[in-house]
Amino acid sequence: MQRLKKSFILNWQLYVLILPVVVYYIVFHYLPMYGIQIAFKDFIANKGIFDSPWVGFKHFERFFNSYYFERLLTNTILISLYTLALSFPIPIILALMLNEVKAERFKKMVQTITYAPHFLSVVVIVGMLFLFLNPSTGIINHIIVALGFESIPFMTSPGWFKTLYVLSDVWQTMGWSSIIYLAALSGVDNQLHEAATIDGASKLQRIWHINIPTIAPTIVILLILNLGSVMSVGFEKVFLMQNNLNLSSSDVISTYVYRTGILDSQFSFSAAVGLFNSVINFALLVIVNYIARRVNETSLW
C-alpha cells in the first residue's frame, strides 16, 4: 500500500491521464454486467431486473434446441474463419512488401491508397457494393455481360454473401492493419541484412529469416486477439448487407440477438444468446493464449 501511495505521488500526472479511460470502462463495460443476470430470468419490465423471476438455463436450452441454432453458429464461425484466413495474413504481406520499397514517393502513394478505405464508414462501403454489383446497372455486371456471361445477383445470392463480406473487409482494412507491422519492421537491425547479404542471402531469404522472425511476437499477439473474437462477427456490415434472399448465409448470432431482443422484445432470451457468444469468445481467448505461451512463450499474459 505504501509503495502504491508513493508511486501515485511521483506519477500522479500519469494516473490523472489514464483516469478517463478507467472511468469509461467501469461505466460502460463493467457496471452493465449487472444486467447479465436477466439471461437467467424471465425479465418483466415493471418488476425490474432484481424482482424478475429466476428460470435458470431455460433460455439457453431454448436457444440450443431452436431451429436457427445450427445455422447461426455455422454462419458465424465460417464468416469469422474466412475473414481471419484472408484479412490476417494480407496486411503482413503488404507490410513486408512496402518495407522493401526504396522509392519513398511510390511507397507513400501506395500507403495513402491502401489506408484511405479505412476512413470510409461501413454504410458507404455497403452502398458501394450495392451500386457496383447491381444486376442491371452495376459496373461489375456490365463487364460480365460484355464478356458474354449472364449478370449475377451478387447481393441477393446466399452463395456470394461470405465472399463479398470478406473481400470488401480486406480491401477496407488491409492498409490500416499493416501499420503495426511496418512499425515492428522499423526495429529490424540493418546490420543483420548487411551480414546476410554478404553471406549471399537473397531478398526473399532475408525476409523469411530476418524480417518475419522479428515481427513474429507482434503477429502472435494479434493472432491471439483475432482468434479470441471468432464469434464476434461485426453486426453493422452484416445487417446492412443482409436481406430476405441471402438470410440463410448471412444470419449470424449478432443479427439474431438484434431481431429477438430489439424487434421482438425478448430481452432475457437475447441476453442469453449474447452471453453464450461472449463466453465462447472468452474461452477461445484463454485457450489460444495458453497454447501460444506453451509453443513460443509469446502471449497476452
Write structural notes for this entry.
There is one protein chain. 71% of the residues lie in helices and 0% in strands. It is built from 16 helices and no strands.
> N- to C-terminal separation?
24 Å
Percent of residues in beta strands? under 5%
Give a count of the beta strands, DSSP E runs of length 2 or more: 0
Supply the number of helical segments: 16
Structural class, from helix and strand content? Answer: mainly alpha
Secondary-structure element order, as H and E? HHHHHHHHHHHHHHHH
Q: Any idea what the radius of gyration is? A: 24 Å
Low-confidence segments: none
Helix content: over 70%
Mean pLDDT value: 91
Q: Report the principal-axis shape.
A: globular
Largest sheet: none
Short recap of the structure:
71% of the residues lie in helices and 0% in strands. It has 301 residues and is an all-alpha fold.
Which key phrases capture this entry?
mainly alpha, 301 residues, globular, single chain, 16 helices
